[in-house]
Amino acid sequence: xxxxxxxxxxxxxxSGDARLWCDRLVRGLGQHEFDIYAxxxxxxxxxxxxxxxxxxxxxxxxxxxWTAEDDGVVHxxxxxxxxxxxxxxxxxxxCAGPSGTGAAGSPEGSETxxxxxxxxFGNALYSLAELARDEGGLVGALRSxxxxxxxxxxxxxxxALRSARTVRVPDLLAVxxxxxxxxRPLSLDWYEDDGLGSVxxxxxxxxxxxxxxxxxxxxxxxxxxxxxxxxxxxxxxYLASTEAPPAVRSLLAxxxxxxxxxxxxxxxxxTPGNTHARRWQERCGADRAKLRTVYPGMDASRxxxxxxxxxxxxxxxxxxxxxxxxxxxxxDLISLLHAFAEIRREEPKTRLRIVGAAAGxxxxxxxxxxxxxxxxxxxxxxxxxxxVGDNPVSFEEIGGPEVPSLAEAYAAGAxxxxxxxxxGFPISxxxxxxxxxxxxxxxxxxxxxxxGGTGLVVPPRNPRALAEACVALLRDxxxxxxxxxxxxxxxxxxxxxxxxxxxxxGIYLEIVSHSPVRRVxxxxxxxxLPFGVPAEAHVPGxxxxxxxxxxxxxxxxxxxxxxxxxxxxxxxxxxxxQAVPAGEGVR
Length: 587
Prior knowledge:
This protein has 587 residues and is of the alpha/beta class. Helices cover 42% and strands 12% of the residues. The protein is globular and about 80 Å long. The two termini are 41 Å apart.
């Protein structure tokens, strides 16, 4: 089958989100053909170029989300009216307050109201998409004064969100600019029969803007949509807008909430990467029947040498704790350092190795703060008056002389610690499990789901609990060995590339088998023939002699209409003097 893979700020670019798992997915499904439709996030990302693509990628089409030149389209009076009506309706649904219950206060009435609002938002969105298709683009219209005034009217209308009523002109301009950026995929020429209209399935590697082209392909051509979210886009938008004024934050949250609900409503299946993401999707209206949890696939071979070491965790330094990851405030290394101070009181020989690089300017400042705190809590120690002092906390990076590889970072200690206060899918925790290491983690994100019963979990921002759990494992090498072996077995069962590819392959086949037939078979007189397309027509191959109308999808079934297959009595030939009619038992 041909799959349209939709990405935003990731694959096939060298840097960005979802790059690794998309590449592994495409390479692992060599029997299928992939068309890549990628939205870039910055000029720098585009300048860095693409990774090397496998031969099953037949086409790559890209478009920038970070900039959009005016398309020069001049709308006539009728088109301007269509835009004003559609954009005004979209803004009204974004600014509208939450639905109440029905007249009798029943849950059924509330669900009906939510359904009506979702329909209105979706209809407005598709009206804008149809206008863009008819007129050649909406970039100028989305930046126009008409758009800002429509947004202002929606904010001042009765029933609007309380925070929206306080919006000021700068806020309106900021919100309108954000809407224009998010809706840029509406103006792309990706939705014709030679584009996304020709694929058998759209697979969006994220929600939000990445899934919008798939939503439009479903609207224009009936192409089924699969949405994968390893990090929920709606949650990311909530966190990214915390510094915006309250009115702007409220309107952006409402817009992305409506868009997420529409994506989930139209998708054939939704594949969250963990239960944490699944709960977010359910709260946004995703149907539980559509949800299929597919864990991220990770390369276990990188850690095979450490994980398969006959000595196991016993070969590591029994007095060393290891932390691995990106250094940023969300990792809460401050709590880890305070916990380590308590650990040193119980086990004075213990050392802590923090391995990772700072994430951006904020991470660099945070790293400096952590180093200063470590120097304050643990002055350089020496065994004697003539020995050189040594701090029990070290800050290192992968690729240095002491930690040349990621696997060796995990191999350096007997216990791996995760101290985060915010976490999605804990990749470093899975890597530690591949290495057969016992772990102590904070209960955030998908940590409990990933670790199962193979490690210790404590509340976040609780240095004392973190210290007690680490001391318990440091004092019990047999327990460390058991937990490490169980963790490696669990990781190999659930989190490998192979299981990820197999899961998506099965979902692809399930979606295509349930997708409606978008073709018409005709008889000799040219009349539609009911039940003329066998189930095998969903699978590549010459399974039937019937020829199909030129709707063009699937590609292997395209052609001019001709006479349908003539059904004749089937005979089952068996050794012996006679043929037995099919369906009768042969004994």
